[in-house]
């Protein structure tokens, strides 16, 4: 039994922003593709279907809280999200997991993103744990040099954990090994994660820009945005725990002192203005610990800000409607 | 069966601030009247008794968390709330709903506020959804010109929704049509609501001052307060979703990036200092989604700040006790 | 039956930071001692085992969320918490409560802290309600002059409540009566507590520095830190309600407008840099109303920040490992 | 705006037993019609959209727990539910409520049932509160003499409550006034309801057979079934509180000592065997207080037992598939 | 400070059956007195205010679910609960606990019951843990010989636990030592409790009739009732865990296989018919683990059955109203 | 990396009945071995670590609710569980799951049971889903002829589901294919499961005794026990859903009308008396949907009844202590 690259959301779950569901990726015709990547590379059996696997459909489910309808005026972006243009946003469903062959999974995820990029669409991915950007990074190999912007508590630079190299502790290490990844900015860092002193040393040796959350609170997000070189090709990976637990409570490892929504929103708009944002992912949402779905709603709002900013920056060849 | 203008809170619910319950409005003798307005103008059957209808009694129920006792020192206002004066605060109960004649409801609400104003008392109303300020605005017709200050996610400028003109999507549109309403400030606006581009255009055509939440975060609330002309007669309508969901989580349509408590508190104190605050309402609290009653507590604290500020600004002819 | 000074955490609860459990306090050999003080001086029967009594073990239980492992890099402190030194941190368990003789309890608590101080260790205590710092203050009588730094909603200056003098409403009043307590800073004050005008007058007569939360938001925490004299011997008592309910929701009397984590973190680091922090307690956590254990996690993170800052300020004679 | 007789279930809710959704009742071609009747005749505003209004869609939602698939072997009925016959079961959706004209509602409900009966189909209705059988009883006027079988805690014989005659306290009184209703059996009666001594007297004057739950436990359900005359035309109305709260916990007025599932199941099978069951309703489920959806599941299982028994008793002209 | 014998329920809690609240026990004029005894004799600090202490007010709070109104027809007892007689039922509030002198507590409880008995009233007590019947038993010393009827999982025959002789593990042992206690029936016994083989031996040596729950299920409750001698003076003590956890889930030590409501109801009615029931208590309800308040409701229904049966057996000199 | 046959329970989880933990199965010396088998053979990714995988540790965690201490008198078995004998009960932990090679899992489970049987110990297994008895059945190949006693809603006779032959829908089909399995009794069957008519036909062709729950309620469990031949070698597999949802609510597919605790308890005691019970498993508990842990407690009580009955039937060569 060969699995398809993507499958529809679970029954009862709408697509994100009510966009058309497209699972035939060979004929994809879109400006933006929403991708669900529920599954990562588990360290132990309970993690195969960890809480994060439920996040893509959870975020889709709050579409009507993220956006009342597409033609409404959205004050975060200054008008209708699609700016009254014929923007082609599609939801390509979820990358499935082959229970009998876990190793095939990230290959499928990578192939999915390649199809999206080949079609000229911007991939916006909802994880899943923080392992899932790894195949996305790989698929970006024709898009470099890429400036990687990470919002996170953790720096995620482990070589491997228990022999698993593509797990949720390693995405930035993996990125650092890819020729097409250039500068790395790690914003919101605080508390502890999987990093030991040797991982911090490795990150510094690479030249990663580690920007603690406390620096953002002190200096202001504008200052941080200014530190990122203009004119780049940016890829944004947002770990929900990078934001403060009061903003996105549904995370596995909450740490106080995180970024606030208006800071991350400004970061996204700033990057769009500076150069080309190639894509974005939001990972590590654990829906079972959410409070009134606010974490999923915030995730959706971040995506909507990216779309609204990008279309206003004329990223897409979309005529007025 | 003719309904009275107001009825007592449900059994087991105290009055707000343990104030005397007065439902004979013809002999009302008070400086401040707390009014519960549970019911709005529903769009569909489930909304007749929506979650918001439970908010007036929910806020009353946390009185002992809002205020330990009236003679205690309140650091938000710099002394006992009533400033050791013989302030007459009464709770006039809830405006009831006639299940057999919905249309009579807002007439009763308006008549209630007129009685309060006629008695020379400041009306402070706990909703209810955001339709309930409409009859309050109408009752203010002898108090103009009124500067309307709204704290909200949404601009609420719909002409009607499904033929309902006095619903929760239309209060500011209705206000804009009243001769006694002058300038309108809409603060904390963000994300999406019922507004389409045409409603934004209408608001702008009127000259409404739309101040997005992000502008407040960037410029600071002091700057915003400065933009409001001094010496006015202000009426404040606060939609709980105008504050950040981390501050007031119990709302139907939470949107990240909202105002913080200290910003709204400063706005209230600032308006009291600038001129005459005629009254205030707090609406759109959904008690069933609250977290440790914090939304009701915050609502109560906002009211207590208004009362404490107003009495210190010598609004009321209340002698020392 | 004579009770020991301390007893181990309840079965199934680890020690804080997986530190060794030591209950023989006569041979204590440590730089830092973690103390649980579940029980205060109750005003009524339900308060004997109030929710706060469960906090010490609740905070211990989230050790693996506070800290992934001791050798990991902690970005709040800039390296492994213990800075790769042979720091001796021990958990000395909980001070037990004699159900047949309540009055003996605070004597036992005081004796426990004296043993810790005598061993040259810094006491870090997890309450319990806000009565529990009283015996700690007493035990500090050989450490003066002590500058007392309180983070709280409430000023806690009651002479007594219902005849109970060592209850949760009185710790700062008790402190003010001790010869070895010098200046008092009360930061984050807002809303109402047990204080009446007479308690505020008493605090002012003493010369207590009452710094409302709103002043912190306006002036910035750096300004507040600057107001505290350098070179002091500081003791820090943190009531969880001093922080904002969005940061530490599990408190009995939440009040909006509180301090944020990054402000309190900076305060702790600032005090360590200024002089000698003698010890710290965190009180008034009510685990049953927590949200995803975040309040316990924040408590742990505050402690970790103190430890990490103190070891880097060379407080302890701990050689590199 | 004229409302249709029925509308589809809310988005995201399947039909009961995945049956086809049919809302054109003029061309109805079915053996059995599933009807949702969310709305009753409210006594006060909160009851307009009481918890019971959510029950029809809640029961539909557990279809896959009630029945794994239609061709599976169901041991409650001894084979596939439809007995391998071409049984035409349709779900005709929910009778809507006109918020602007409550009085029209029961007329619409009655007309719906008349359409079903005219099409020769057996109506199985999911309420709603216990007012909703009243229009069903009315629609049965061409089916008499009808033996009414009620499973309930309460006898429901009030003339009116607060002037409302068609409310949840009155269905059996209303039935008793209809010429086509003959004998009445009221089974499971216990504790208190709306009945005063005068209602009990009225029921007895009519000749209603009041069978307390305790009599069922003592004598056994077989004895009770034997007391009901054979060869009748039965209509069954089941109030969920007639069953024990351990079986159907989601009811507004739980009373211990109720009927068990196997007793009610046997009653249904017994009635089908004795004569002709004309239809059935299940009312008074309050989904918000359910435990693991068990109340909705039990409701579904009772319906499935009726369908499976009826098809095996050759009620319907349905050929083998 | 001398405590009164009883104090009113907590604010917001009605009396049981809306009966008059009487705390002046010297002038008590009543047929039946409802007593709350929240506090027992704790084994450790957390047990001073264990969950059971909240049960008296929890049961009072569901009065309107136990009984819709006093004049309604109650099918458990065959008419209005008070049988249309001028029955004087009073609620005498809760026996308070002196936090500074625990030993005084059971003296106060005993004195309370003596006052009730002296006034000729039947005491019906809501606990509290299973220690609270001990002072009740003592107060019955003028009523002997008393046949003690216990419904329980456990036999409760411990001499003491940790030196506490009047704790929840010892009530039947204490009863066995009282001259006025004659036969003892222990019904519903199963699983494990505090009893070791020596306690079972002691019970048997005394001649206690231990009737396991499984014997009740096999033989039927009628057979068990027949085994209790007629014409006795019975006192009934019901531990909520004696009933099945599906009937009364809110208990600390649930054990499957327990008595059902209709069995215990029949036992109460049977005892009333056989002789004189002197009083009853219901203990060991833990409201925080209840499911839809059903445990409190069942407790209330058991009391209502006793009252209704007793008044119909002409226990009280109450004329028709 | 080769996995051991079993691993200890998760940190913080005690062993069942506080029995010694033994994971060296080659030197096993025991009369009874408690085995956890968390993992089955999943049909899809989320099922790899389904809720049932948490059941073994959940049941262990309620040991102190199942049994207060081993020397206490247990009225379900008529004395201390081990009957004052030197019974060797050990807990051998959980069979682990190799995330990289799922197919190896049931081999490890089977090998574990073989080790237990080889040591002469009775295996009592806590699942896990209903696939986990399959390797147990296989390991019994030297114990035949075995009479298989199943308590369940479902007959579990599927040849395979989606190509998985050893899944939770197939255990009895697999058993039927084993030469050492003789008669099969399936008790409590009702509602629907995976069986289609062809599976029922297969079961009947085999001669399986399908005994619906309703037959047990009608005829009594004694009659059913009598139908099972005496003198057999019985293996008991209990699916928690075989009991009524009011008794064991924490199951995935609850169906009303199930067996009661006292019926299943009697079945276990009856089988022990009739012949030799070789072992038992309890499966399909979903801890996340439990109510006050009652399902885990009931599971533990069933095991305790088996142990207590078996030791009293002299199954084990255990001398008095």
UniProtKB/TrEMBL annotation, chains A, B, C, D, E, F:
**What domain of life does the native source organism fall in?**
Bacteria
Cofactor(s) this protein cannot do without: Mn(2+)
Query: Family, per the entry?
Result: Belongs to the arginase family.
Residue sites binding Mn(2+) per the record: 130, 152, 154, 156, 239, 241
Question: Is Metal-binding given among the entry's keywords?
Answer: yes
Question: Does the keyword field hold Flavoprotein?
Answer: no
Q: Which PROSITE patterns match?
A: ARGINASE_2
Question: Gene3D superfamilies recorded for this chain?
Answer: Ureohydrolase domain
Q: What UniProt keywords are attached to this protein's entry?
A: Hydrolase, Manganese, Metal-binding
Protein name in UniProt:
Agmatinase
Q: Where are the transmembrane segments?
A: none
Q: Which GO terms describe its molecular function?
A: agmatinase activity; metal ion binding
The note on cofactor binding and number reads:
Binds 2 manganese ions per subunit.
Pfam families in alphabetical order:
Arginase
**Native source organism of the sequence:** Bosea psychrotolerans
Q: Which GO terms describe its biological process?
A: putrescine biosynthetic process from arginine, via agmatine
């Amino acid at each position: 039994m060969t699995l398809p690259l993507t499958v529809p959301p679970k029954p009862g779950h709408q697509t994100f922003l009510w966009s058309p569901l497209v699972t035939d990726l060979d004929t994809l015709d879109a400006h933006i593709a929403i991708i669900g990547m529920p599954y990562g590379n588990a360290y132990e059996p309970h993690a195969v279907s960890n809480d994060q696997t439920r996040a893509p459909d959870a975020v889709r489910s709050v579409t009507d809280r993220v956006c009342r309808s597409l033609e409404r005026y959205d004050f975060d972006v200054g008008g209708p999200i699609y700016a009254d243009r014929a923007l082609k946003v599609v939801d390509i469903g979820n990358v499935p997991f082959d229970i009998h062959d876990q190793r095939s999974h990230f290959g499928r995820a990578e192939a999915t993103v390649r199809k999206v990029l080949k079609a000229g669409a911007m991939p916006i991915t909802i994880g899943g744990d923080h392992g899932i950007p790894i195949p996305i990074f790989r698929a970006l190999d024709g898009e470099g040099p890429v400036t990687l912007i990470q919002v996170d508590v953790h720096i995620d630079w482990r070589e491997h954990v228990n022999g698993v190299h593509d797990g949720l502790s390693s995405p930035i290490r993996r990125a650092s090994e890819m020729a097409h990844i250039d500068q790395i900015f790690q914003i919101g860092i605080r508390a502890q994660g999987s990093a030991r002193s040797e991982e911090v040393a490795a990150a510094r040796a690479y030249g990663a820009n580690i920007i603690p959350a406390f620096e953002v609170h002190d200096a202001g997000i504008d200052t941080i945005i200014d530190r990122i070189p203009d004119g780049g090709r940016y890829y944004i990976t947002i770990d929900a725990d990078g934001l403060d637990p009061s903003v996105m409570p549904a995370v596995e490892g909450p740490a106080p002192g995180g970024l606030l929504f208006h800071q991350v929103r400004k970061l996204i708009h700033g990057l769009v203005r500076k150069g080309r944002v190639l894509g974005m992912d939001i990972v590590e949402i654990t829906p079972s610990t959410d409070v009134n779905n606010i974490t999923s709603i915030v995730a959706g709002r971040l995506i909507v800000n990216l779309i609204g900013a990008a279309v206003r920056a004329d990223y897409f060849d979309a005529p007025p409607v």
